[in-house]
Amino acid sequence: MAALPPDPKGWSAEDVKRWAMEVVGIDAEDADKLVVQEIDGEALSEMTEERLRSYGIPGGPAIKLMKKIEGLGGCREHFAGSINMAALPPDPKGWSAEDVKRWAMEVVGIDAEDADKLVVQEIDGEA
Question: Whole-model pTM?
């Protein structure tokens, strides 16, 4: 089987389905729900667990999908268009705790209260 395109934002709904089955490990029935909803790579970058569950994807697979989606969002080359990555240092290891907080809120989608905990704990790019 051919490799997926390197940039998830360019994935088709069928690419997302394949990724969900092969990488995440969800079953075909749940992966088909992503195709029915026309979830391509761009839509995947905006996904939430609540949306997945509203599509009829059960809790366990929804959580697994979100963990993998968050992993994609954490890579500079993936979903970089969702925030102004140019405003962040080019190497994530050089990010301050405030940079990590901003990234966590805008890319990962955690709320401000939880993001503030990263700053309090001094979680920077080296952590």
Answer: 0.58
**Sign of the dihedral defined by the CA atoms of residues 125, 24, 115, 77, in that order:** positive
Q: Are 30 and 58 in contact (CB under 8 A)?
A: yes
CA distances (Å), origin 81, targets 64, 76, 105: 23, 9, 14
For residue 52, give the nearest of 109, 111, 114, 115 by alpha carbon: 109
Query: Hey, is 54 helix, strand or coil?
Result: helix
Contact 123, 100 (CB under 8 A): yes
**Smallest Cα–Cα separation from 35: which of 14, 49, 11?**
14
Looking at residue 126, its amino acid is: E
Query: What is the mean pLDDT, run by run of 10 residues, along the chain of 127 residues?
Result: 75 92 92 96 90 94 89 51 57 83 74 86 83
Say if residue 74 is exposed, middle or buried (CB neighbours under 10 Å; 0-12, 13-18, 19+). Answer: middle
Tell me how crowded residue 125 is: count the other CB atoms within 10 A of its CB.
16
- Locate 64 and state its tokens: 């697994």
- Looking at residue 2, the DSSP 8-state letter turns out to be P
